[in-house]
Amino acid sequence: MTETAAAACEALLSHARETAALEQVAGRLGWDQETMMPRGAAHQRGEEMAAMEGVLHARRTDPRLGDWLDAADPQDAAGKAQLAKIRRGYERAQKVPAALAQEIARVTSVSQGIWAEARSRDDVAAFLPTLAEVVRLKREEGAALAAGGDLYDALLDDYEPGMTGAGIEGMFAALRPRLVSLREKILGSSRVVAPLEGLFTAETQLRLSRRLAAVFGYDFERGRMDLAVHPFCSGSGQDVRITTRVTESDPFNCFYSVIHETGHAAYEQGVDPDYLLTPIGGGVSMGVHESQSRICENQLGRSRAFTAWLHGQMRESFGEFGIAEAEHFYATVNRVAPGYIRTEADEVHYNLHIMLRFDLERALMRGDLAVGDLEAAWNDRFAADFGVKVDRPSNGVLQDVHWSIGLFGYFPTYSLGNLYAGCLHQALRRDLPDLDQDLQAGDLNRANDWLRDGLRRHGGLYAPAETIERACGFAPSAEPLLSYLENKYGGIYGF
Amino acid sequence: MTETAAAACEALLSHARETAALEQVAGRLGWDQETMMPRGAAHQRGEEMAAMEGVLHARRTDPRLGDWLDAADPQDAAGKAQLAKIRRGYERAQKVPAALAQEIARVTSVSQGIWAEARSRDDVAAFLPTLAEVVRLKREEGAALAAGGDLYDALLDDYEPGMTGAGIEGMFAALRPRLVSLREKILGSSRVVAPLEGLFTAETQLRLSRRLAAVFGYDFERGRMDLAVHPFCSGSGQDVRITTRVTESDPFNCFYSVIHETGHAAYEQGVDPDYLLTPIGGGVSMGVHESQSRICENQLGRSRAFTAWLHGQMRESFGEFGIAEAEHFYATVNRVAPGYIRTEADEVHYNLHIMLRFDLERALMRGDLAVGDLEAAWNDRFAADFGVKVDRPSNGVLQDVHWSIGLFGYFPTYSLGNLYAGCLHQALRRDLPDLDQDLQAGDLNRANDWLRDGLRRHGGLYAPAETIERACGFAPSAEPLLSYLENKYGGIYGF
């Protein structure tokens, strides 16, 4: 490498490190907004978010980046990956006008509060003008990014580099028939699994939740857990925070959302510390991120072996709560029922929720669906897919935060994550055939290590699908997830 | 105003608004560090603070500012004040090299943690190398700012525009003899006031503290209260947060630090909303800020009338706690005793604590005192002024956070605030002669309004001393504070 090339690499990395630090600051501002911010600060916060976005946009379009990118010639894999990420960000940022980027930051900061308020009052009309504005801005952004191509693909690529709407269609084509058939078998089964009943004090739920987070590898020295309306994970490196929510009648909601967010957090915390505040220092894509949360929550956390341990923990924490047998508890945890809320959905229905959102948001972005028609479209599709009529907007079109903050193209990465989690789980069981012994003891150390060593530590070193393939030793497909689901639920529902 | 001049004004204000928003973000990062940040995030946080400082420094030295400042010609008082603040910031920032500003941000972010750790272990040696580094950097900054003048004056001017070390010396020359004499009379008095005894549960203290904050005008819709090692107030406009700490054996510590921080917060929250995120949208100086916290804490909060109400509140909250008479309670709240800790000092000793720090930090900045000799100098001076030997560093040189984060020149503004509070109190009593009736009922509304209308709403519109003079109707001096103290303590200690 010439001296000029080395200097350009150094300049790029130093610039990127500062940008990464500022992105962490902006992200923590988002965390604060959801957990700590006083209600009356919404307007000012919008200005703050917009100002940060302006700073970040200016950095991402810094003309020096172009010169450095031309001159740099990194020699090792990490350097090449970092450079590729920087180039990608630079090219993306150049396409979006600064004024638009700032406007999106300002509007989506305020719109989140309007959504939360509308949701709490089940008032769709109060949210629609804001949503229309967000849709308009995101379409404008999509058009700027797509440069004549598909708007939705351009937005999706932000969350899952290299993925397209057509690719998602293909995935759903593979998943849908077997999921629908599995759903029908379960709902037609003579075995009835009753939901959990009783009240479980919030304080004890939170105590056990902290234990669960630690079991799944969450490092509280580099993170913290708070309450929020919507569970999420925020931050990278040394400061990765998770949130949860507590319903006294539904402890599984809290426990499994904590395990889920812990999966995300352990991914961020598990990235090679050498990559701290570099462009490859975080999770590589939303799909791969979701594979980490999902394998923790479902394939491991809802396994027969782990639920046996959790059953014991719950009896210790709450006393006898009406379920004496571990097998009965396992079925209860995995109960399948059509429900309104995506984040509470069982593994069989979950991807049907995503298919609905994918089709609707793609139609919104393509201009095939008007915001004014969104609620009706949601309700029709939900009735068709789930056989249940939406009873109120907070159980329907207002339930998710995503669209309010402009996350169009994000939803399908959840299903992609489920698919990846199926693959990783198959490979994990192959490599640790006696894993159930650990799970029964509430010991996730070997599983956590396997995930960290095979996947998490690489951060953004490899492309998303390559990251999964390297960890698994085979190319990802829908088959492992489908076989896993068919086996598991066949066992529980007896077919 | 010409079109060019108007455009320049608009450009300046828009630029300043974004800078103000980013300063709020950086400030909230500081709040987070003291209240929420996981322990293991210290290194990363240093990088984040440095990156924010880099952004702010670049904005403050933006060469376009110079052109706009040359062209702008604002017509109204607010516009002129905003322009003057921008000019001041621009000129200051140009003097300090960006690398130095970032280095200070990085070092002081990390050094705060090192100080806290050293303080908790009473280990001065563990802190000294860091302090030496901070002193070196601040002297470098002072030299850059002073441009041949006095280093300490240059740093002091950051916190109290227009004030000098000589001015502070003059103030202390007026205060010291009468304070020392008052101290001697009290300590020589035959009346003995015993300290409060008993344990007061933390939860109840915090509940009553929230009540006290509301009474003194804190708007919880635009703020929040959390726990921290060191009570502080952070933020401006719509998001002004306070912290406190709780000691079960010493509820006055919590109550009066909350009233104190509420004074700061109500100042920030009381600024004219038209000035939100402009250069005059916050408190005008640290001295004026401290006048707001001090008048709430002392002249009002520790008055005979208000403590009568607080006495009733405490009996309601904690039951009988050993003090049955309001007059006895009033004396207990105002008990004078030489103590180690500045923030817990009574009104008579408080300014002696500041004099000590002022002399030491001025010597450090001028190079007349080496960091290695600081502890001995502190201990000698403390013994001389307070008649007590420092028993351990956390009660001595390690007690304050200020030096660890580079706040040299800040301490004397506390005494200035006390002096200003004395003036404001005299004027307030003149305008509301029946104020004690309100205070006895725990009703601070008229006092809060008087402070807001006469002072707080102006933000940075007027210079610090002018702000006080306009609110009072007379020029500030030490006399009102000294007469107030002599009258009050003469009454309590009977001379």
UniProtKB/TrEMBL annotation, chains A, B:
Keyword annotations of the record: Carboxypeptidase, Hydrolase, Metal-binding, Metalloprotease, Protease
Molecular function GO terms recorded: carboxypeptidase activity
Catalytic activity, as annotated: Release of a C-terminal amino acid with broad specificity, except for -Pro
SUPFAM superfamilies recorded: Metalloproteases ('zincins'), catalytic domain
A matching Pfam family: Peptidase_M32
E.C. designation(s): 3.4.17.19
Gene3D superfamilies named among the record's database cross-references: 1.10.1370.30
Top EC class, one word: hydrolase
Role noted for this protein: Broad specificity carboxypetidase that releases amino acids sequentially from the C-terminus, including neutral, aromatic, polar and basic residues.
Family as reported in the entry's similarity comment: Belongs to the peptidase M32 family.
Protein name (database record): Metal-dependent carboxypeptidase
Organism: Pseudogemmobacter faecipullorum
Organism taxonomic ancestry: Bacteria, Pseudomonadati, Pseudomonadota, Alphaproteobacteria, Rhodobacterales
